[in-house]
Amino acid sequence: MSPYSLELRVTSIYAVLQVWRRPDVHPPRLRDKGLPRSEFETEIGSVSTMASLRRHRRSGRGEEQCRAANSRLPQCTQSDITHEANQQWSSHTRRSTLQLQDDLSHHHPPLQKDPALHHPPLHHCPASNTTSRPFRLLLKWPQTLLPPLAFCLLLAASLPATCAAICPRNCTCDDEALVVRCMPSSIDVMPVTFNPNIQQLTMYSTEISTLDVISFRFYEDLRHVNLSKNRITEVAPKTFENQRDLEELHLAHNNIKQLTADMFLGLSKLIVLSLQGNAIMSLDGGIFQHLRQLRELDLSENHIEKLENQALQGLTYLRVLHLQSNKLKSIPASNLALVPDLAELSLGSNKFTEIKENDFLSMGTLKDLDLSGSMLEDGLSLESFKSLSGLGKLNLEDCGLTSVPSIPLSSLGQLEELHIGRNLFTTLPTNMFRNNRNLHSLYVSFCPQLQRLEKNVLQHNLNIKKVVITNNPQLAYIAPDALRFLPELKVLDLQNNNLHQISEDAASWTDIEHWRLDGNPITCNCSAAWLRTLMMAPNSSGKVVCGSPPGLEGIPLQSLQMKELACGLDPTMQGVVIGLVVCVLVVVIAAVVLVMLYRHHNSCVHRLLKGHHLGSRQGRCDTPYTHSYHQAYTMTPTKPVPVTEL
C-alpha cells in the first residue's frame, strides 16, 4: 500500500462531505500518487455509496431508487446511537472537523459556498427494512450535524483498512520484533507509515534516490538500517540527526558520489558504516568527525584516488578499514597514522606498485593485511613489512609475484596465515619460510605456472596445521619428504592439480587427519597400490579417480583389486615381456655351458675350436691326445761334475 493511503482516505472523506453538503458540485480531484486503478477504486469505494445516496435524496428521486441506494450502505457497527449522546459530543466533533479541514486545505482547498445556489428542500426517504436502526436515526438528524457525524463515522470505518496500509506492498512488518523488511518494489520515497518504534529496517532494490531530513524523522529508535542496492544518489545533511541509537548503517551499492560531515551528524553511537560499491572519488578532511564510536568502515569498490589530509580524523576506535578496489596510487600512510588501533586493513586491487619502509610505520597493532590484486612484482623488499611485527594474516594473492617472497616475509615472525595463490612462480623451494616459525596455515592455489614442490618445503615450520595447494594446472611433481616430518599437520588439501603419481614419502599420510587428492589424474598401477591401501583408512576423505591407463579411466581407485594394479601392462605386453625374459635366460645358460666346455682341454669342443677336423683319422675324439713342445722348452740332463775337480 502506498504511503499516501492515509492521506488519500482522509481526503476522500472530506470530498464526500462536500458532496453531502453541495450535491451539485463534484468532489475535488484527488491526488493520484501512482496507485493502480484497482487500488484507487478501493480507496474511494467506501465513500462513493454514501455520496450517491445523498444525491438521490437531494434530487428528490423516487423511493425505490432511494431504497436501492440505501441498501448498498455498510451497516453501522455501533449498537445504539441516541440523540442525547449526540448532544454531548456534537460540539467537540464540529471543532475537530473544522480543524482537520483546515489542515487538509493545504493540499485540497475547501470549496467556497455559492450564495446563488439554492438547496432544494430535504425529502425524507423511508428507510427500508434492511437499514439499521442507528442509521435511521442518523437520517433524521438535522443537516447541520450530519457532516461532522458522517466524518467521524467514515473515519472510524476506515481505520481497519488504514492499519493494514501502514506496511507497504512487498514489505514485511513485524510489530513484535520491531523489524521491517522490504523486498524489491517500486517505492520511490521512504515510507512514513511504519511503526515509529521499529529498530531494524531493511529495504533493497527499490526506487529510492534521495534521503532527506524527513526520511527517518519518525523512527528515532532505529538500531540497524540497511538501504543497500537502491538508487540513492544523495544523502542530505542531518538526515540521521534523530537516530542517536543507530549502530549499523549500510548504504552499499548505490550511486553516492560525495560525502560531507553533516551527512553523519547525530550518529554518535554508530559502530558499522558500509559505503561499498558507490561512486565516491575522494575523501575530504574531517568527514567522519561525528562518528566517534565507529569500529568498521567499508569504502571498497569506489573510485577513490586519494585521501585528503585528516580524512580519517576522529576515528580513534576504528578497528576495520576496507579500501580495496579503488584507484589509490600510493598507500595513505599519513591517514593510517590517525587510526592507531587498526586491526584489519584491506588495500588490495589498487594502483600502487610498491610498499615503502614507512608506509606501515604506525601500524604496530595490525593483525590482518590484504594486498591481493596489487601489482607488487618488484615492489617488495626486506623493509616492506618491517613495522608489522605483530601481523598474523597476510594476503598476497594475484600480486604478479614471479618467486616466493621469502626475504620480505622474513621480518614477520608472528605470521600465522599466508595466502600466496594466483601468482606466477614455478617452484616452491626448500625452506622457503624458514623465519616464519609460527605459520600454521598456507594457501597456494590457482597458480598457472606452478610445477614443483621441492624437498623439505616447510622443514622449519613445525607448527603448520593446514596446507592447501589446489587448482594448479601444471603441478605434476611433489618431491619425497616435501611435506613430511610436520607433527602438527592436520589438513592437507591437494585437490585439482596435475599429479599423475605421488610418493608415499611425500607426507606422513597416516598422521594427517584429513587429506584430499581429488581431481588429480592418478595413474592406477602398482605404484599406486600404497594409495589404495591408504584410502581404506578412516582418515581419508573424498575419492581418487584413475586418470590412466585407458582401461581404468574414471574408475575410483579404492574400488580396484590389487591384482588389477598391474603397473600399467595389459595381457599382450605381459606376454611379450615374459617371452623376452625366457629368451634372455636361454641365451645366458647356453653361454655358460660353452664357456665351461671351452675350459675343458680334452673335450671335442676344445679341439674343434682349435681347428682339428673330427672327420680325419687324426681328428677323431678317441685318438689319444699328444702335444709336442718346442726344443727350447726341453731340459737335457747334464753329467755331474766331480768334487775333486772343484
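Next protein, fold it too.
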Amino acid sequence: MAGQIIIPVLLLLATGGVTIQAQGPLYPFQNVGTTSPRDDDGSSPRITLQESFNFFGQNYSQIFLNNNGDLTFDAPWSSYIPEQFPRHGGRDIIAPFWVDLDNTLNGDIRYIQHSSGPVLQQVSDDINAYFPALSFHANWVFIATWHEVPYIGESGTETTFQVVLTTDGQFSFVLMNYGSIAPTSRPVQAGYDTADSSHHFSIPGSMTNNAVGSNSFFSLHSNVNVPGRWVFRVDQGSTGYTFNDPCEELHCTEYERCGERDGVYGCFCDEDHHRPNNESYDSNITCSSSSGIMSISRCQLFEAGFHSSALHLQDESCNGTIQDGRLVFHFDNDNHLCGTTLRSNGTHFLYENTIHGDVDTHGVLISRQRTINLRFCCVYPLEQALSMSVGISPMESIVDKKLPFGTGSYRLKMTPYEDEDFLTSFSTNAIIGLEINKVLFVEVKTEGVDEDQLSTILESCWATPVNDADHPVRWDLIDSQCPNPADGTVEVIKNGVSTAARFSFKMFTFTNHTEIYLHCNVHLCLLENNNCTADCSPGHQNRRRRDVSYHDSGSLSLGPLVLGEQQTNGELIYRNGASDHLTSIVTLIVSLLMTRIWAN
C-alpha cells in the first residue's frame, strides 16, 4: 500500500485488474513484462528507456539486460566470470548478482517499465522513506527480475533477485532486491561500478561464501533496514549511498563468515569449521616467566553471544586484540599488569587473571547472560626435579624445563667461578684442574622468573664420593640454608635475596676416593610478605622444612676434574693445608639432582 515500506512478507498488489504476487522485498514481476531470450551468456535486445537515466553524470536512453546478472548501457555483455569492484574496466555496470547463470532450461529473466500505476507510487514511497529530505516523486521505474534462474551446470540452484532503476528527472536511484539465493562455490559480485571506477560500491559479502545460501549477506542484510534490499542514489554529483561495511572491518578469516546477530555484526564459525573445545572457546594459554598470553576463538565466542570488543581483563583498560581469528589477551610485569595477581596455594605459585565483561542488554553485548568470566592462570609447580644430560657444557650447567600446557617454565643454571667477584667462570671445555684446598665459587641462578617477586634459595648442598645423592657417605656444605658449622671453609655469600644464590668452599676429596659429587636442593621463594633469608647466627640457624611431593627426576653435571696423587690421613675428607705441598687434583662433578620450588 502507498506510504508503506515493503518488508520481507508476502504482499498482494493489484494492477490493471490482475492480482500480482511480490516475494519479500521484490516488487511485482510474475506474468508481467517482457521475457529475455533463453541464451546461456546471452543478453536482451537493446531496451529503449522511456525516460533518460542519469548514472553519475552520464545520461542513458538505452540499456541491456545481461543474463549473467548485470546491466550495461553501451552494449550487451556476455562475461560470466565476475570481477571485483572497482574493476577500472572502462564500462558503466550495475550488477545485482554477477555470476555464471543459465536460463536455457529453467527460470525466467523479465523486465518491465512503469510510468504510472501502483508500482510507481510504491517505489516513490519507499525512496522517500529512505531519503526523506529529497521529496522524491518517481516518473519512471525499470524493473528487471531473475526468477528461479540456476547456476550453470548446477541443478536445484534456482535463485531469484531483482534490480530497479528509477528517476524523477532530478534524482536517480538503483535498488537491488534479493529473494531466495541458492548456495554455490562460484564467486558473486554485487554492486555498481563506473567506467573509471570513480564511483563504485560492492555489497558486503561479494566474492566470498557470504554472498550465497541461506545465510546470504545480500538477503539477510540491508543499507536501508529492509533485509534483502540495498538502495543507492546514483545521479550526477552523488557519491552513492554511504555504507560502512562492518564485514570489511571485522576481517573474518577463511574459516569464519561475517553475519549479524541481534543487531551486532560479528564473525561466525564457518559451517564446515571444526569447533575444538567449544565449552572453553578453544582457549590456549602460554606462560613465560611473569607474563602470560591467553587466546580464545572469536567465532565460538560470538556464537555464544559475546562480542570480542566488550571483553577485558581485570583491568578494564586491558582489552584483547584480534589475531588470525582469535581474541588475544596478555599481561606482563613491565607496566602491563592488567590486574594480574601473584599468589601461592602451598603447592604452586600462580599468576592469575580473568577475562570478563558485563552484559548490556541495550548496548553492544548480545548475550542474555549477565556476565562472562574466563579465569586463567600461569602455574609454576612448587616442587619438581629437573634433569639434563651431562654433555651440554662442562662449565655451565643449564636446565630447561618445558612444563605442561598452561603452566609456566623457568631455567636453572649452575656455574662454577674462579674468583670471589663471580666474574670469571671456568671457560674451557677440557678437563678442569682444581687444587685441593683451593676455594671454589658456585652460583645457582633461576632464569625466566620475575626478579622482583621471586628469589632462589639454596636449602642444602652436600657432597658424596659417588654419583648418588642418597649415598650413606656424605659431607654437608649447606644445611637449612646455613653453612655446615663442622666445615669452617663454607661461606654462604648470597641466599634468598635474588634469583641468584652464591656460596663457596675449599676443595677436598673423600678418603680412598678420587672423585666428589656435589648436590644441592634449591627452592624458590615469593618475596612479597615473606622473609626468604635465614638467620645463620649461632643459636638461630633456620630449620624450616616443607612436606612436598616430587615431580620428575634427573641430574645435571659439571666436570670432570681428575685426581692426581691420593692422600690419606684417616679422616672422612682430606684437605691439604700446607702451602708448599704439591697440590692434588680432584674430579668435580656437580650434580643438581633435584630442584624444589618453595613458596611460603
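About the second fold: The radius of gyration is 40 Å.
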